[in-house]
Amino acid sequence: MRMGLFSRDHAEQKANRGSSEEPGYAAYAGHGELVLIVDDSRTFVHSARRLLEGHGYRTVSAADGLEALEVAQDTRPDLVLMDIVMPRMNGFEATRKLTRAPGTRDIPIVLVSATELESDKYWAMRQGARGYLAKPIRKRALLAAVSGIIGESRRLHGRSARIPVLTEVVSAPSRVAATA
Q1: In angstroms, what CA-CA distances link 5 with 71, 89, 136, 162, 172?
Q2: What is the 3-state secondary structure (H, E, C) of 32-82?
Q3: DSSP structural state of residue 3
């Protein structure tokens, strides 16, 4: 079942009735890692920020790809969530520039899109993205992607180490595949 920008499956909805806590989300808690959210939708930025900050991450945001280049260079985030369709510079171009620039090439990027087109997923990986999420995003899928990619990067002691590429995270429950 999809609701708004984030979707939750029926079991999550049922479990959360009358509860302010999200069950099973502790495993995805952050420890102050910085996530750059890049999207021209203020609603998506607000929703993603609330979710991530509520689970221990710090966030900064940018409204388009051009601004994302500047913010990423200035803040050196632990991960970037990047929309694809934006004004001034789209997410594919911004990802390509970030993954090729010496100061930002090791920052993992997860592209976010309203489509689940295989061609978009393929092109995202070709530009250097480490993951792809389709909107509406399941909260658990977003937290799992952020936590997993940051965690693996940290376990390997540095952003420049080869980390698994998240090839598919979709809004359907339990559909996350990673390749090394």
Answers
A1: 24, 22, 5, 31, 14
A2: CCEEEEECCCHHHHHHHHHHHHCCCCEEEEECCHHHHHHHHHHHCCCEEEE
A3: E
Q: Strand order of the sheet with strand 137-138?
A: 2-3, 6-7, 137-138
In the chain, which residues have pLDDT < 50?
1-4, 6-21, 157, 159-180
How many CB atoms are closer than 10 A to CB 19?
8
Q: Model pTM?
A: 0.75
- For residue 57, the number of C-alpha atoms closer than 13 Å in the C-beta half-sphere is 29
- 135/118 Cα distance (integer angstroms): 14
Residue from 33, 105, 98 nearest 71 by CA: 98
Please answer whether residues 28 and 49 qualify as being in contact, where contact means their C-beta atoms are separated by less than 8 angstroms: no
Q: Please give the domain boundaries of the chain with CATH numbers for all domains.
A: 2-12+27-179 (3.40.50.2300)
Please give the helix or strand (H or E) that residue 109 lies within, else none. strand 109-113
